[in-house]
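Students often ask why we bother encoding 3D structure as a string. The short answer is that it lets us treat folding as translation between two languages. Here is a chain of 67 residues written in the first language.
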Amino acid sequence: MMKQIPCLKLFTKEELYCLLNACSESLALAYQEIHECDLWHIAMEARLACEALRFEIDSQKKEHSIH
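And here it is in the second language, the structure alphabet:
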């Protein structure tokens, strides 16, 4: 049985980044074990989402440091 993830609004963007990053890495490792292409595609989508979130986080930090 899968654990239910708490409401996403309870996470900071940094915590969501860590969660996405961990998911991506776990999926990539799972792909290496069983070579299921769907796992690789999902891992890459999670990685892209992770990097987009990192860009947003870094942009907001730069914006706050300017003001």
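Translate back mentally: Residues 37-66 form the longest helix (30 residues). Keep this in mind for the problem set.
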